[in-house]
Amino acid sequence: MNKKKKNVIEQAQKLFIEQGYHATSIQDILKRSGVSKGTFYNYFSAKVELFKESFIMLQDEMRIERDKVLIDKNIAVMDVFAEQMYVIMSFNEEKKINELIEDGLASDDPDLICFIKELKKDFNKWVYHRFQQIFSADKQPYLVDATIVYLGVMQSMLSMRKIIDNSVSIKEILRYSLSLVEEMVEKSSSEKICIFTSEEFEKIFPEGRGIKSDFSFNELTLATGHLKKMSEQNLQTDRDKHELVLELITFVQEELMHEEPRKFLVNSALTTLNSIVQLNQTNEYKRYTQILNDLGYSAI
Description:
Elements: H1 3-19, H2 26-33, H3 37-43, H4 47-68, H5 78-95, H6 97-105, H7 110-134, H8 143-163, H9 170-191, H10 198-204, H11 209-234, H12 239-256, H13 263-274, H14 277-280, H15 283-294
Helix pairs in contact: 1-2, 1-4, 4-5, 4-11, 5-9, 7-8, 7-11, 8-9, 11-12, 11-15, 12-13
């Protein structure tokens, strides 16, 4: 993505947050970003396309912050999930994500409504899969119900907190909601009570590009963090090489966030990384390249 297009997306994103989707006109975006109408339509077919791209950029930014929590942590620990949820909810509050979603759903554009519903589905799937990673095998049949209850309780409490201007913190609400879910899962498993099955859930929320790419991104972010830390240790006597490694790792991560990553450039960056002896024999690097290989990228 060229710098001018990225600037248009970033400036529009700020306007959407400040004013809302419907209240922001294309003229507002042109004025804020400093581009002509011709340039705008060269990048986007309509305002709705720009809104979707800005939302995807926000989601990518959120995922990076969310998955930083996993570095050097046990993914199966409930408190780690609670930390991730706090990052997500704080990010959503700061960027007014819920307001943007409601604004978009009020649109008469069926494509935009479908896009937002898919975002919501992806979040539901992410929570469900995180619960699968946290709870033991005997609790798995009850996790669809747990996901539904958790999201319902949490969202209702957060909404009520805003309505009555309550001083209770987001962390308190998240922790309370999780404690209810843990009790519910224990009770459901002991009494063998299950309302919705995983088969029904997968039928409504089938495995697809969204969840697979999200979990690949999750693992890649984690592996990237470990690789950066290892590079700091192994290359501390060679600052130029260390800076090159950081630059290449960051480039790969940012490139893969794009809708259509440039495979040749990613593979070229991996080829350069592969030539660094202090790097390519480490477990961190092997894990990093394995994840990228699964995604279809490898050194030339």
